[in-house]
Amino acid sequence: MIDSIDKLSPRKQQALQTRKKLLEAGQETFLENGFQKTTIAQIIKKANTGYGTAYVYFKNKDELFMILMDDLMNRFYEVAEIPFKPQSKNEALELIKNQVHLFLTLAVEEKNMMMIVKEAIGVSADIDQAWYKIRERFINRISIDIAYAQENDLAKKNLDPSLVARGWFYSNEMYMWELVHNEEKYAMDDVIHNLVSIYGNGLYE
């Protein structure tokens, strides 16, 4: 990556550095002030870039935030993309349990940023739409795993993979927000045990 950047012209290298500075300043400002109270002017000031220059890269704070959100979600996608090729129900449940644990642990580790995401979804139509697309990407990946289990005679074949995947993701998302908000109503291990038990016994033979 460094080599490829070094091959760019000085002007393009400067542009990449400016964009990176704006994104870093944006994340710091969002974490300090929350989504609604953050302004593009605050981000520009923290990044120490020209006011007009910032708008070359981002039309507004919503667009800048969506890039930060995508970067964060890519870490969650890495969990979703863990190979899922179980040969038995027990192996499938262990793989699912591990994925749920990694997914929820990452959400808690990034809870400050996740709370800003939650706030932004509620006040920005663009970010709400972006979150919808993120959901659909996760649901599609889960559908593929369910279809694999059905094709290999591990899961009930009378169930619709896309519908089951949708319900499974929404359940995980709900508890993710519970844990992110640190309401301390439920222990993570209890959440994982109950989620996987209900899902696994409902889907797998």
TrEMBL record:
The molecular function GO annotations come to: DNA binding
Which parts of this chain does the entry mark as a DNA-binding region? 39-58
Q: HTH tetR-type domain: which residues?
A: 16-76
InterPro entries named among the record's database cross-references? Homeodomain-like_sf (IPR009057), HTH-type_Tx_Regulator (IPR050624), HTH_TetR (IPR001647), Tet_transcr_reg_TetR-rel_C_sf (IPR036271)
Q: Which UniProt keywords apply?
A: DNA-binding, Repressor
For this protein, the record's Pfam families field holds:
TetR_N
Q: Which PANTHER family match?
A: ACREF/ENVCD OPERON REPRESSOR-RELATED, TETR-FAMILY TRANSCRIPTIONAL REGULATOR
Q: What is this protein called?
A: TetR/AcrR family transcriptional regulator
Biological source species: Halalkalibacter suaedae
